[in-house]
Amino acid sequence: MIESTSAATSHRATEILSNVRELCDPLLREAISSLPEPLRRMGGYHLGWWDADGTATPQPVGKALRPALTVCSAVACGAGPPTALAAAAAVELVHNFTLLHDDIMDADQVRRGRPAVWTVWGIPDAMLLGDALHALAVRVLVDGLPAPTATAAVTRLETTVIEMCHGQHADCRFRSGGHVDVEEYARMAMGKTGALMGCACALGALCAQSEPPTVAAMDTFGRELGMAFQFVDDLIGIWGDPKVTGKPASDLARHTMSLPVVSALGSGTEAAAELATMFGRDPGTAAMDTARAAALVESAGGRQCAQQLAERRVRAAIAALADPAAAADLMVLAGMVSRRNH
Amino acid sequence: MIESTSAATSHRATEILSNVRELCDPLLREAISSLPEPLRRMGGYHLGWWDADGTATPQPVGKALRPALTVCSAVACGAGPPTALAAAAAVELVHNFTLLHDDIMDADQVRRGRPAVWTVWGIPDAMLLGDALHALAVRVLVDGLPAPTATAAVTRLETTVIEMCHGQHADCRFRSGGHVDVEEYARMAMGKTGALMGCACALGALCAQSEPPTVAAMDTFGRELGMAFQFVDDLIGIWGDPKVTGKPASDLARHTMSLPVVSALGSGTEAAAELATMFGRDPGTAAMDTARAAALVESAGGRQCAQQLAERRVRAAIAALADPAAAADLMVLAGMVSRRNH
Questions:
Q1: PROSITE patterns from the xrefs (chains A, B) (predicted)?
Q2: I need a surface site. Which of A103, B38, B107, B320 has the fewest CB within 10 A?
Q3: Which of A129, A154, A163 is opposite residue B142, by nearest beta carbon?
Q4: What ipTM describes this predicted complex?
């Protein structure tokens, strides 16, 4: 799964992401500027626009994949990119609101290679910024769409937020121990990652005034792609190059119950038994031998399982598209998700 | 300020609150029921419907003042109560979302005489429930109103949430020490308490299809009343009877920077100097002599100041009403807020 994609497709994906970022940026900056201080300053820091002291950063952080899905979905449904910019910005704001809250819950100190907001300003302010970005997302969506589309879009976005809360609850439960099987893991990933990518695509279709079956098909495309994204993320978390990913440590060092691990632990092999013992130790007192653990996950079939499930989800995503020819950019993004290495 | 109101007015206020609660209850229960487990169970616990194990509670908790403001504002603007129920439920859900998050930030272990959600299910689940209630509030509002009203209502509600985040940020800052004057305190209270009560009333007017000047007047009424509510709350926090308030300890024991304290500390009196010394001690190591502190706040004029400012705010609220005769129930609620003892 983690292999170099054809240079042309990779170049086109970068181009799409960069174009959408440029289109959405003014709307996002206007939204963040409307926040009272210090929420404005914290929000711009989290979005990678400036340092904690307000100095502008040289380049943007984050992939902006979700806004790209919204804009490309609208285009695939026959609308122009400007129609979908408010929805794209709203999805990006919801994504960032959940990142802020998840980082607190998971005690993750690093976000996109920089100190997480809660480590800089403290937990209360990071919670409040998350709440404010959630509110801002809804306001941007409502302000940027005609009333009937706005109400349908808001209902869909907030239903997605509730599904994400449920997914994050399951993820927290998995982190605190107990048995997890591949099916439970997939359900959690659907809530945590699939739901918002599905919503991103569905909103693009809504903005294009598509009929309900098309909106549903775009939702399925995004959800399946989101699952693939998560499974590839899990593979990168173990076998990715820290220099490329920007993530400081292997998921294994933190005892993260990712798909390869869950699959390996459920394999009934000898490797699974040894892995279970390693995962059973207190991460605070015994450092994980991550090279050994990665080898065990691989020999227990966890790597192959995650690769196969990711590929299956990408195929299911593409199968959901009624007219793949009209969705060329979505196909490029799907290819990027399945072959990315960071 | 804390004196018994006339029995008839007090009876009428209780009646209004109980009627509105009964009208809103089905909508709130339907909304909470739509949440996936365990968010549904936690939500119903927080709203006082059942215990942590799911056993139904004998009587409701919480005053439901904000939904009453929404419904009575709609009635004052010439509409029937059913028109405003979705907005009333949405305001109550936002109020509860902020309580859940504030209790985490403030480390408040007791909410309405029962263990706060975060002490029962942990901080991550309490954060997620808050996020889910925020999403649910918006969904209820959009689902229950015609599209053009819904979009105006959602924009107003989310603008209010951002103002509340800013108010809570200031409150957290005050808690962590540093000088606060009466003006700064009033600004914080406007964000934390006034904004949502103003929004509650404005949404009632919006649901009644009122013109912008009427909506603005109702917003002012609610904001001024909300400030009075907060100032009376501060008085109760020091001089209220714990048996009546259900709050375990005086605000003074927790070094809370409430209006009487802020006013007393800024009085330039000898009592202020002694009080400042008492507030300067670490609450973890030296227990506050709350009787002595209360006497100092009073002799430094803090009690009188809070009483006067609360009365002024109630008068300003009533002055904002274009037609007090049409707003009889709002006048009753204003009387209750200014004379309550819990």
A1: POLYPRENYL_SYNTHASE_1
A2: B107
A3: A154
A4: 0.94
